[in-house]
Amino acid sequence: MHEHDTDRAAAEPPRRRDPVYAAATRMLAFALAPVAALATPGRARHTACRWALAARFPAECLDGLTPDTRAAFEAARTRALWEHGVLLGLTSGYRDRATQTAIYLAEVRRWGSVAEARRWALPPEESRHVAGTAIDVRPTEGARWLERHGALHSLYRVYDNEWWHFEYRPGGRPPRLPDPGAATRGARGRPLFRRAETMAVLDLTCSAP
Length: 209
Ligand SMILES: [Zn+2]
What we know:
- This is D-alanyl-D-alanine carboxypeptidase-like core domain-containing protein.
- The protein is of the alpha+beta class.
- It is 47% helix and 8% strand.
- It is built from 8 helices and 4 strands, in the order αααβαααβαββα.
- Strands 1-2-4-3 form a 4-stranded antiparallel beta sheet.
- A hairpin with a 7-residue loop joins strand 3 (155-157) and strand 4 (165-168).
- The model is unreliable at 1-7 and 203-209 (pLDDT under 50).
- The structure holds zinc ion.
- Zinc ion (ZN) binds at residues 5, 129, 134, 136, 165.
């Protein structure tokens, strides 16, 4: 089960233990590099980074991302670690339709409105997590690094209200939106959805087993 976007903070305050974790992970990657060179000649830094980050973020799961998205993310985090000493972890990548539906319906229940829910989660047919081209990253420092350096890997922050959410966009930098629902809202920011539609979704929620 993947975690999902539960953190509403505009930016997490830096935690005192993060620099310690970063230093320990850097040291581990450095120590593993000779073995990584034997295991994967020419890819020592990449492999050592992968091993060290797996130790730091044991719960993360890169499965289900498209091969290009996964390769871009792994290249970015290798560069972040070796060039800048910054850790980049994955909170949530690919989600199946059922998981995304549950996340979306939870937001509809939470806000009592489809328009408001869409500021935080999209239904599965629109979600790039379901398409395997979106990643939620951590910690805040890693997300900041990716915002600054991600373009080289076609990874871009897309939403003002989600500092953790990045998308693989090989076509170039997408327009930055206030939130996930912004693309489908009316010109003056009014929701395109009617109350009846909200109630239909809530009915669906109530009838779910
Ligand atoms: Zn996301």
